[in-house]
Amino acid sequence: MNPPVRVLYLAGSGRSGSTLVTTVLGQYDGVFAAGELRYLWQRGELENRPCGCGRPLRDCPLWREVRRDLPTDRAAAIAAGLRGRLRMRGLPALLRRHRRGRRPVPAHPDDAALTDLYAAVARHTGARVVVDSSKLPPYGALLGALPGIELRVLHLVRDPRATAFSWRRRRGLDGDTDPELMSRPPVWKAALLWLVWNTVTVRLWGGGAPESYLRVRYEDLTADPEATLRRIAGFAGVDADSGPFTGPATVRLVPTHSVAGNPSRHRTGPVPITADVQWRRDLSRWSYALVTGLTAPGLRRFGYPWRRGVPAPARPAGQPVEVWQSASAGQEEG
């Protein structure tokens, strides 16, 4: 009997650093940076969009081998089925099933294809850990119920004002020359998505065992990249000394074979890890106030100030999240 495939699932809201974390982790021994695998069937198989290595996915030698083990002739049906099963309107029922100890996302015949996907990726890459940055909590809940998968959830959180600003940037889906743009939701929608996805992530996994759930803030990652990535690597169960750091905040990246994600997944060579804080200067006062009001319940939970210009208090490396949250509560602005 084959051992289960360990999947490090990056959950939470978009624009929170998941592409950066996935790409860096993909440089560690025994780790495969798969990218947003829930999009394999649509963007990879049907649209043949670029792999992280730069080739169209169906022309990538690695994915050519993986695809031989998959029902690629059913890609359109599988992609449509996932869209239907993971809709936001299904969240209340998903959470009710979770509270009752039932499978959050009901079983479906396509689950066999998903199980085969992760098994094939592990088999053809030899990876001990597959990093999936799909982020969507319902998809993570679906994966956690599949046979042969050992799920560990890395919950990435970023200041909602920063994510709302980032979503409004005009970016090609796979780089500046791509005429198809990434989604650009208005700030109110980006704020609500941030609140919903992060809240659902906590509801599904936040009360679990420390070995199955870890929460990391983008702000702490960029403040101390090497220490934070070592912590994440340890949580994933890989050798933290095998990383790509050439300095405390610089990594040397080689191409990955990630599916979908931010176009920054194509970056290679020496890359500095720095905080993107343009939003502090350029996000309008109206947008700041709107996002702050809509996400107020999550700001306190995750340690973010309400007042503009006040940085989020840093969490000391190695300090448990719950202890840090309790200690930092008094530093937040009301």
UniProtKB/TrEMBL annotation:
Polar residues: compositionally biased ranges: 325-334
UniProt-listed InterPro entries: Gal/GlcNAc/GalNAc_ST, P-loop_NTPase
Pfam families, per database record: Sulfotransfer_3
Biological processes annotated in GO: N-acetylglucosamine metabolic process; sulfur compound metabolic process
Residue intervals passing through the bilayer: none
GO MF term list: N-acetylglucosamine 6-O-sulfotransferase activity
Superkingdom assignment: Bacteria
Chain intervals for the UniProt region annotation (Disordered): 313-334
Keywords: Transferase
Transferase as UniProt keyword: yes
Protein name, per record: Sulfotransferase family protein
